[in-house]
TrEMBL record:
GO CC list: membrane
Catalytic activity: Hydrolysis of terminal non-reducing N-acetyl-D-hexosamine residues in N-acetyl-beta-D-hexosaminides
Active site: E325
Domain (Beta-hexosaminidase eukaryotic type N-terminal): residue spans on this chain: 32-152
Boundaries of every Glycoside hydrolase family 20 catalytic domain copy: 178-482
Organism: Perilla frutescens var. hirtella
Protein name listed in UniProt: Beta-hexosaminidase
């Protein structure tokens, strides 16, 4: 038999098909992350065409801003970028080659907001003439998730020197369990350059996270330009460690094109010493630089100006107003603030409540719903606006109290979902259940989801990726995948998470090994898949 005949037999073996339905045991052997709601697959393989194309006929989404086309190109690029593609698919029988992907989006809108439909259906047939994969989605953002799932079933084949689509035919029906699946980055403790933030956003799409919580400012620095109050960024570490207003607009636009909302946070009244570098009147005194001066009307005028500027670029329905770790003792010992407290019949804790509620009213006037850290609920929950989302971080048991009170909640309990806690292992990230002890369906619906937090006292551009990944991916599956599809024992999904970590590495994301503490280096020489 000649070489041409042997190649024909080899290529046919690559595409021989046995169709099966995925049961629980099969799902454990699929290398998709996060696990979809419903999956069926076969045992066949198809070659990805060198001219793989996007078709959108029949779609109501015009893609005027290029969201879909750019996502398609990114998806194909990450699949092809791991190796040089040597296979010439034009010389292969067309019945063995996947020619392209046909995406139909039913909504013409590109609006991205909390609660946007992110569901999709993906079908990759084993037979057809010509052969096209198919994605259907209500919105373009669901289609983006479908493209990501498709990219994870495409792999470089060392024998053919091309890309194979494994385990065809595929049918995936998928949607997220929670509408809020967040990651917090902190640009006050350490400045993160814009390209680094963009790279974090790209990596979030691989795990289907959909909210970048941007903790922009804090005690240490105020790096963001605020046009209404241009001296605020005098509180930055240096002139080069600043974000222009255009930078912030670009980050929001970049994230939107990837299906990610940006949640902006200003933490008030505490964690705000840096504000007074440019505007010293915000400090109660030279010896008391935070909390912000509750007695000064300028404080609230400035907050109003910040949120007015925010409303021009941060279009997510929520704004985060912080409210945590407020020590009011210096209010009570600073003479002019003490005089104001006495005049208004307030003690320190009551002034804290006054400040938070007044800041909430300002945010509401700019069209935002509010997110506050849980101390506000713990101290005066009944007084909070009914448009408040309480952000749990101190520990367990808070979410159930919040939803009992009829308020919404986001879960980030620090013992499980703080990425800067390097002793918080991936198993805990995976097992942390936002609905613990919440059984009433109406109360469960008030839990918007959860968020992993990368507080940056010890995180800069040199270690941010390995601090986030792969532990954030463990939480991402908890937030995406139906509860009954989640592993009760995290060790059962370890090999699949390890595979995803290696996929991140192949895509240029510096994800750390699973073994050991967070962002720990490999312990010994060995395969990526065994670390």
């Amino acid at each position: 038999m000649g070489r041409e005949g042997l190649e024909t037999i080899f290529l046919w073996c690559l595409v021989c098909v046995v169709v099966i339905s995925a049961n629980a045991a099969d799902i454990n052997h699929l290398n998709i992350w996060p696990m979809p709601k419903s999956v069926s697959y076969g045992y066949g393989n198809l070659h990805l065409s060198n001219e793989f194309e996007l078709r959108t006929d029949g779609s109501k989404f015009a893609d005027a801003s290029g969201i879909l086309k750019e996502a398609f190109l990114r998806s194909i690029n990450v699949v092809r970028s791991t190796h040089v593609i040597e296979l010439n698919t034009s010389k292969i029988d067309p019945s063995l080659v996947l020619k392209g992907i046909h995406v139909v989006v039913f909504s013409p809108s590109d609006e991205l907001q909390h609660g946007t439909d992110e569901s999709y259906k993906l079908h990759v047939p084993a037979q057809g003439s010509p052969l096209y994969a198919h994605i259907e989605a209500q919105t373009v953002y669901g289609a983006l998730h479908g493209l990501e799932t498709f990219s994870q079933v495409c792999h470089y084949n060392i024998s053919s020197r091309g890309i194979l689509v494994h385990q065809v035919p595929w049918t995936v029906v998928d949607q997220p369990r929670f509408s809020y699946r967040g990651l917090l980055i902190d640009t006050s403790r350490h400045y993160q350059p814009v390209p680094v933030i963009k790279k974090v956003i790209d990596s979030m799409t691989y795990a289907k996270l959909n909210v970048l919580h941007w903790h922009i400012v804090d005690t240490q620095s105020f790096p963001l330009e605020i046009p209404s109050y241009p001296k605020l960024w005098d509180g930055a570490y240096s002139i080069s460690e600043r974000y222009t207003f255009a930078d912030a607009e670009e980050i929001v636009s970049y994230a939107k094109k990837r299906g990610i909302n940006v949640l902006a946070e200003i933490d008030v009244p505490g964690h705000a010493e840096s504000w007074g570098v440019g505007y010293p009147a915000l400090w109660p005194s030279a010896d008391c630089k935070q909390p912000l001066d509750v007695s000064n009307e300028f404080t609230f005028k400035l907050i109003d100006g910040i949120l007015s500027d925010f409303s021009k670029i941060f279009k997510y329905k929520f704004v985060h107003l912080g409210g945590d770790e407020v020590n009011t003792s210096c209010w009570e010992t600073t003479p002019h603030v003490q005089k104001w407290l006495h005049k208004n019949g307030l003690n320190g804790s009551e002034a804290y409540q006054y400040f938070v509620l007044r800041a909430q009213k300002i945010a509401l006037s700019h069209g935002y719903d509010i997110i506050n850290w849980e101390e506000t609920f713990n101290n005066f929950g009944s007084k909070l606006s009914r448009k408040t989302v309480v952000h749990n971080w101190l520990g367990g048991g808070v979410a159930q109290e919040v939803v009992k009170a009829g308020l919404r909640c986001i879960v980030s309990n620090q013992d499980k979902w703080y990425l800067d806690h390097l002793d918080a292992l991936w198993q805990g990230f995976y097992s942390n259940e936002p609905l613990t002890n919440i059984t009433d369906p109406k109360q469960q619906a008030l839990v918007l989801g959860g968020e992993v937090c990368a507080w940056a006292e010890h995180i800069d551009e040199s270690d941010i990726e390995q601090t986030i990944w792969p532990r954030a991916a463990a939480a991402a599956e908890r937030l995406w995948t139906p509860y009954d599809k989640l592993a009760k024992d995290p060790e059962k999904i370890k090999s699949r998470l390890s595979y995803f970590r290696c996929l991140l590495n192949q895509r240029g994301v510096a994800a750390a090994p699973l073994d050991g503490f967070g962002r720990e280096a490999p312990q010994d020489p060995g395969s990526c898949y065994l670390q």
